[in-house]
Design goal:
Blueprint lengths: L6 H23 L3 H15 L6 H16 L3 H17 L14 H14 L3 H14 L5 H16 L4 H18 L2 H18 L3 H12 L6
Helix pairs in contact: 1-2, 1-3, 2-3, 3-4, 3-5, 4-5, 5-6, 5-7, 6-7, 7-8, 7-9, 8-9, 8-10, 9-10
C-alpha cells in the first residue's frame, strides 16, 4: 500500500486549511498573536498536501499580516513574497470557488497594510496608490477603506494636510454609503490626529464631522 495521502483528503486539504486560517484570524482579533500564528502554520501544513492554489497564497498573506503585527519585518516580507509566488503558480483549476475574493488586488492590499504596520510609509503609500488607481469604480466602499490607509501613511510622516485630504474623502464616502466598516477605520485614526493637532482648525472640523456622523450600534 502506498504511503501517500488518499486522493479525497488531498482534495479537501485547501478547504480544511482555509477553515484553520479563519480560526487564526479570530485569534488575532482577540489579541492572541501566538495562537493565531499556530493556527496559520498548521493550516499551511495542511494545505501543503495539495497543489499550489489561491488558498495557499491567502494563507501566506495572512501570515504576513500577523508577522507585521508582531513587528517581524523580515518574516512578514518573506511571507508576502511567498504569497505572490503561490498566486503566480496557481492554475485556474486550482482556484477554489470559495476563495474567489483572493486575487492580485487583494494581495496588494495585504502588502500595503503590512508595510503600513511596519512603519514603512513611503513603500506602503506606493502600494495604496496603485490599488486605488486600479480599483473598479463600483467598489466605492472599498475606496473608502483604501483612502484611510493612504491617509495613514501621511499621518505616519506627520503630513497633516495630505492625511486629512484622504481621510476626509473616506469619511464622505462612509457617510454616503452608510459603511460602518469604513467608519471604524476612520475612528481608529482619530486619536492620532487629535493627540498631535487637536487645536488645528482642519482637525477640529474633521472631528465635528465625525461626531455628527451616525454612531455605531451598541
Amino acid at each position: 500500500m502506498s504511503g501517500s495521502a488518499p486522493r479525497s483528503s488531498v482534495g479537501q486539504a485547501p478547504l480544511s486549511a482555509y477553515i484553520l486560517g479563519h480560526l487564526g484570524i479570530v485569534s488575532s482579533e482577540s489579541g492572541q498573536l501566538s495562537e493565531a500564528l499556530a493556527f496559520i502554520l498548521a493550516a499551511q501544513s495542511r494545505a501543503a498536501r495539495a497543489p499550489e492554489s489561491t488558498a495557499h497564497a491567502w494563507l501566506w498573506a495572512v501570515e504576513a499580516e500577523l508577522r507585521s503585527l508582531a513587528g517581524e519585518s523580515k518574516s512578514c516580507l518573506s511571507a508576502l513574497d511567498r504569497a505572490q509566488a503561490a498566486l503566480d503558480k496557481t492554475k485556474p483549476e486550482n482556484a477554489p470557488a470559495w476563495i474567489y475574493f483572493f486575487d492580485g488586488a487583494e494581495l496588494a492590499s495585504y502588502r500595503g497594510a503590512c508595510l503600513e504596520q511596519l512603519h514603512q510609509p513611503e513603500r506602503a503609500r506606493s502600494v495604496w496608490q496603485a490599488v486605488l488607481a486600479s480599483l473598479q469604480p463600483s467598489l466605492i466602499r472599498d475606496r473608502a477603506i483604501y483612502q484611510t490607509h493612504l491617509g495613514a501613511t501621511f499621518l505616519d510622516e506627520g503630513e497633516l494636510h495630505e492625511a486629512l485630504t484622504h481621510i476626509n474623502e473616506a469619511l464622505s464616502i462612509a457617510i454616503d454609503t452608510d459603511s460602518e466598516r469604513a467608519m471604524r477605520r476612520i475612528r481608529r485614526l482619530r486619536p492620532q490626529l487629535t493627540a498631535r493637532w487637536a487645536a488645528e482648525p482642519a482637525v477640529m472640523e474633521f472631528d465635528q464631522r465625525l461626531r455628527d456622523a451616525k454612531e455605531p450600534p451598541r
